[in-house]
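If your schedule permits, I should be very grateful for your opinion on a structural question. I have a record of one protein: its chain in single-letter code and its fold written as discrete structure tokens. Kindly check, if you would, that the fold set down in the tokens agrees with what the sequence suggests. I remain grateful for any guidance, and I place the record below:

***
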Amino acid sequence: MGGGLRIADDPHTDAWDDLVSSSLQGTVFSTSSYLRAIGRPSIKLFVNKGNVVKCGLVLVPGVDSGTTEFDDLVIYGGVIFPRSEEQGLVKSRTERFEIVEFLLHELDRRFHKISISLAPGYEDLRPFLWHNYASENAAHKYSLDLRYTSILDISEFFLRKPDEQTRLYHNLHPRRKSDIRKAAENGLLVEEEPQIDMLVDLYERTLTKAGRTVSAHKLSRLRQLVIALHQKGDAKVFVVKNEGEVTYVTVFSVYKNQGCYLFGAGDSENTSRYDGTIAVWQSMKILSQYGVSSIDFEGVNSPQRGAFKLGFAGNLTPYYRVSKGG
């Protein structure tokens, strides 16, 4: 099995980032700078045929030796293919299947527990479904966890038309439209401002109010991640101000021409329902000034947050987490 394929560990940073940048599965979460900023190790592999890179793989090592695990700061990673070479669809699909099949058998040699987050652009799940197909031991097979995100084309904002004259506005859920109107009536402003400590404070308070605990370590990781991304220009931080007081903070990554909604949190004591809506709406309009043409809302997998994000009328888009040996 493999047909001359081999694993190359720890590829050079430039080669890795070139692959991510060129790939349909490449996102900010797989870039070297993002993976350095998450505050824990990561594993990057190439599958090569001769001197040609056929795919890359991002994994997060687990606490126990011989394991990998999901990390809530690495939303997508997984298998990353370069842009298709000049070959027919059938040949390309067959080759990619064989590459992933080879990769999964090599991972079996290295890990007894494997968790992989696949990007929305990854399509062919058959290698995972068919791996150790004949085995009666469920631990030898991959399980697939279907998840969804929402991706919104915001290129219409490039035209700088009034909200009411845009398709983007008319497609909004009525509640989102109402929120935008009320925010304007009440004089709320959205500005780009790196209020990162404020974000972390509001994020902790939001989770605490919801009855969820968040460790100091996680908050520290979040803070350092946003600082690192912002310093490199890979993230923009926006604040909502009501009479000069910050009531909401959002963070969007910016990679290639896509923005991704990373974090958002509001002051529960001083915020109104419409602060979150205007935060996202105006942030997207500002991001369009940086050439961002689409927004990934990074998951719509819980009822309340899912309903809020889907209210902006993006395209419901599936992605998968796959795991084995758990």
Notes: Residues 5-147 form a domain with the Aminopeptidase fold (CATH 3.40.630).
